[in-house]
Amino acid sequence: MTKSTPSDSLGVIERAIQAGARSGSISNSSSRPTRADETDPNMPDYVEHREGVTEIGKLSAEAVVREYEATAKEIESMGLELVERVKACEAMTRDTLLVTHELNEIAARYRKEAKRVFEHIENCSLLVAAARETCGELKDKLAIPTRLGGEHLGTDRSDDNNELQPRD
Q1: Pick from 71, 63, 23, 29: nearest CA to 47
Q2: What is the pLDDT of residue 149?
Q3: Do 53 and 29 touch, CB atoms closer than 8 A?
Q4: Can you tell me whether residue 90 is helix, strand or coil?
Q5: What is the pLDDT of residue 23?
Q6: Which tens digits make up the pLDDT trace of 126-168?
Q7: How far apart are CA 60 and CA 16, in angstroms?
Q8: 3-state class of 138 per DSSP?
Q9: Which of the two ends of the chain, N or C, has the fewest CB atoms closer than 10 A to its terminal CB?
Q10: Alpha carbons 15 and 164: distance in angstroms, whole number
Q11: How many C-beta atoms surround the C-beta of residue 128 within 10 A?
Q12: What angle do CA 70, 75, 80 make, to 5 degrees?
């Protein structure tokens, strides 16, 4: 749609006045009131000419009201377009909420996996610490015969306390 400017409106009015003057239909008074739809079928139904208005006045008023009506229709079409945009925004909002819900589920799965990995690492750490402790205890037990002064060749394991005892 083309948008009309005030200068366009004045041009339409001037042309209507000139056309009326050339045709000789300009009169100073009218014998009866005319409805807008009697002079022009494209006139909006919310206006009608009053008694005593000159032909130039009628043509001028008709031209102006046509421009206002055209602008009003453009405004209404903008409203319809705005409603369409709002519907698109609402659809986007619904989609966004669905995606946000899905993202929250993914984040929860990541947290669950993080907890599993955390616990696995700590379990491995405990296992390594227990293995080190066991190795240290075994090393200490194996080191006992050297502390006995070289009698490690004749040592026996006692069943009571799991310590190496010298053989008799």
Answers
A1: 63
A2: 57
A3: no
A4: helix
A5: 58
A6: 999 999 999 999 998 888 765 555 555 555 555 555 555 555 5
A7: 7
A8: helix
A9: C
A10: 127
A11: 10
A12: 125
Angle between helices 6-23 and 55-147 (to 10 degrees): 160
To which H or E segment does residue 19 belong? helix 6-23
Left if phi > 0, otherwise alpha if psi is -120 to 50, otherwise beta: which for 133? alpha
Check residue 143 and give its pLDDT: 80
Tell me what pLDDT residue 8 has. 67
For residues 93 and 86, give the distance between their C-alpha atoms in angstroms, rounded to a whole number. Answer: 10
Q: What are the 10-residue block averages of pLDDT along the chain, 168 residues in total? A: 59 66 50 46 84 92 93 92 95 95 97 98 97 94 67 52 55
Find out whether 164 and 147 touch, Cβ atoms under 8 Å.
Answer: no
Please name which of 28, 24, 54 lies closest in space to residue 39, comparing C-alpha atoms.
54
- The single-letter code of the amino acid at 96 is T
CA distance linking residue 104 with residue 107, whole number of Å: 5
Helix (H, G, I), strand (E, B) or coil at 155: strand
What is the structure's pLDDT at 160?
53
Taking residue 101's Cβ as centre, other Cβ atoms within 10 Å add up to 10
